[in-house]
Specification:
The structure holds two protein chains of two kinds. By secondary structure, chain A is an alpha/beta fold. Helix content of chain A is 44%, strand content 18%. In chain A, the strands form two sheets. A five-stranded mixed β-sheet of chain A has the order 3-2-1-4-5, with helices on both faces. The model of chain A has no long low-confidence stretch (mean pLDDT 96). In chain B, the strands form two sheets. A five-stranded mixed β-sheet of chain B has the order 3-2-1-4-5, with helices on both faces. Chain B has a four-stranded mixed β-sheet with strand order 8-7-6-9. The longest helix of chain B has 18 residues. Helix content of chain B is 29%, strand content 27%. In chain B, 43% of the residues are buried. Chain B contains five helices and nine strands; from the N terminus they run E-E-E-H-E-H-E-H-E-E-E-E-H-H. In chain B, helix 1 crosses helix 2. Classes of the chains: A alpha/beta, B alpha/beta. At the A-B interface, helix 2 and helix 3 of A face helix 1, helix 2 and helix 5 of B.
Chain lengths: 331, 199
């Protein structure tokens, strides 16, 4: 079964053709990152404008790359949320139009389900599993008993982890998107700054705004005292706290739910500090850890096509009145 | 010839199918706050009721602005996707021209903070005052035609879609990948960026 998948929830316009939920036939990703870098972050209206300019070009390229025509496609899958509403709408309207014209089933896909199923393109998921989803917009711990069954154990109460990274990056003077740069700097520094371990409680929830504020205050106070801040050390101290709490709660979930499979998903899954720490902990606890290739960590339609296949098998269908939603629970 | 007309730029959703110079289907409803949900079911009904398939369409006429940024993108994405995938010629039309098609004058869309999108058209839909984003002012020729409520007198548009189609029937079709909205206004972020750069 061939799925044409469309993803436009933030600043990437992406279209893929995926076979049977695990075989990537073609993917095209048009990133707007360079444009948004001018503004220090994604500007929703600019993102929407760029999506509408590019949507047919990206669909066309994905089909050409797959050497396929719309007639060969069996199902249309599309991200309908969560995300930026104006951005989502462009991909959604294109998907609905294709489903209507070719009379194909339309499968609504939750963006986070997509991130999780990115791993399915690397290696077939094994259940039960715990998924740690970490990105610029999300920080979730999810338990999956079987394919396309999601139980959210916890999530961030405020900033997403990637968001905290970008803000800390800005405070220490790194350009947008600063998250990857903080990760890089962290390896050149030492953990010398006294920063709190955020929301170190019994829940599976996270909170990063306090830690972020602690960094902002620290930098501010040091500058007022005329002290030089050591960027590398701040990056290292910040990253250590973030990684420690993420790993701690993830390992706790694996233990409590008696699960041996762990997958990591989302843009922050590219973070080397996090990858290393999870690898070490997983090795120690005999956990089967799967982290997607870098290319599947950031937003792409391939993951939506993979998730869409299992959503289709579960019986998920949408009508032509499907609307985009900024927030939706993962079910 | 069989034509499809789509306008989602204002609060008024218009979908029409024209067959050989006659309106075969017309949806014209000013109660659509949820354009993205409404658009496709209306399009589906348009084809059902006029007994056509999307492949039967010879040309697509789509309104590309000005108006609601999100609204414009809804209709334009549908039109572009359809034109691209079925290789149907596509042309763009001004939302203000459509508004002035029944009662000619200055069509207005409230752009907030005293600003309007305005364009003045004569009886034959010739442009007398080019569509623009402007502070509302007395120089704009009356009567004013608008769906929006202002503190001054306006008339509700009466659409004459056939007149619009006739005017643009022979317009040169565009490269579908280059069919874009005509917002007539930069985003606030771009305005600020340009302002900061100039100062």
């Amino acid at each position: 079964m061939y799925i044409l998948a469309i993803e436009s929830s933030c600043d990437e316009t992406s279209v893929s053709v995926i076979k049977d939920g695990h075989e990537e036939i073609s993917t095209v990703i048009l990133s707007q990152m360079n444009t948004h870098a001018n503004y220090g972050g994604v500007v929703p209206e600019i993102a929407s404008r760029m999506h509408v300019e590019n949507i047919t070009i990206v669909i066309d390229e994905a089909l050409k790359k797959a050497d396929m025509k719309m007639e060969n496609i069996d199902v249309i899958a599309v991200t309908y949320g969560p995300g930026l509403i104006g951005s989502l709408l462009v991909g959604l309207m294109a998907a609905k139009t294709l489903a209507f014209i070719y009379n194909k089933p339309l499968i609504p896909v939750h963006h986070i389900a997509g991130h999780i199923y990115a791993n399915n393109l690397v290696k077939r998921l094994e259940f039960p599993l715990i998924a740690l989803v970490v990105s610029g917009g999300h920080t979730d711990l999810i338990y999956m008993k079987e394919d396309y069954s999601f139980e959210k154990l916890g999530s961030t109460l405020d900033d997403a982890v990637g968001e905290a990274y970008d803000k800390v990056a800005r405070v220490i003077g790194l350009p947008y998107p600063g998250g990857p740069l903080v990760d890089k700097l962290a390896f050149e520094g030492k953990d010398t700054y006294d920063l709190p371990l955020p929301l170190d409680d019994d829940s599976y929830n996270f909170s990063f705004s306090g830690l972020k504020s602690a960094v902002i205050n620290l930098v501010h106070n040091e500058r007022q005292r005329g002290n030089e801040i050591v960027k590398e050390n701040i990056a290292c101290s910040f990253q250590n706290r973030v990684v420690e709490i993420l790993v701690k709660k993830t390992m706790k979930a694996l233990k409590e739910y008696k699960v041996e499979n762990l997958i990591v998903a989302g843009g922050v899954a590219a973070n080397k500090g996090l990858r290393n720490a999870l690898s070490t902990a997983s090795l120690k606890e005999n956990i089967n850890l799967i982290i997607p290739d870098m290319k599947y960590c950031t937003d792409n339609a391939a993951m939506i096509g993979a998730a869409g296949y299992y959503a289709y098998k579960r019986g998920d269908r949408a009508g032509l009145d499907l609307n985009a939603k900024a927030t939706i629970p993962l079910r | 010839m069989k034509y499809l007309f789509i306008d989602t730029a204002t609060t008024n959703l218009v979908v029409a199918i024209i067959i050989n110079g006659k309106i075969a289907y017309m949806y014209d409803n000013n109660d659509n706050h949820d354009m993205s949900s409404k658009m496709m079911p209306v399009l589906y009904e348009a084809f059902e009721k006029s007994n056509l398939k999307p492949t039967d369409i010879d040309k697509i006429f789509v309104v590309n602005g000005p108006g609601s940024f999100t609204g414009i993108r809804v209709g334009l994405t549908v039109a572009k996707t359809m034109a691209y995938t079925l290789n149907i010629p596509i042309v763009t039309i001004s939302s203000l021209e459509v508004m002035a098609s029944g009662i000619c004058g200055t069509a207005l869309i409230n752009a907030r903070r005293g600003y309007v999108f305005a364009g003045t058209y004569d009886e034959d839909l010739n442009v007398l005052y080019k569509d623009c984003y402007v502070l509302m002012n007395g120089n704009l020729e009356k009567p004013y035609v608008s769906y929006d409520d202002f503190e001054f007198e306006t008339m509700k548009p009466k659409l004459n879609i056939l007149k619009v189609i006739l005017k643009h029937e022979n317009d040169e079709p565009m490269n579908v990948h280059k069919v874009n909205p005509n917002y007539l206004k930069l985003t606030e972020a771009e305005e600020k960026f340009n302002h900061d750069r100039e100062n």
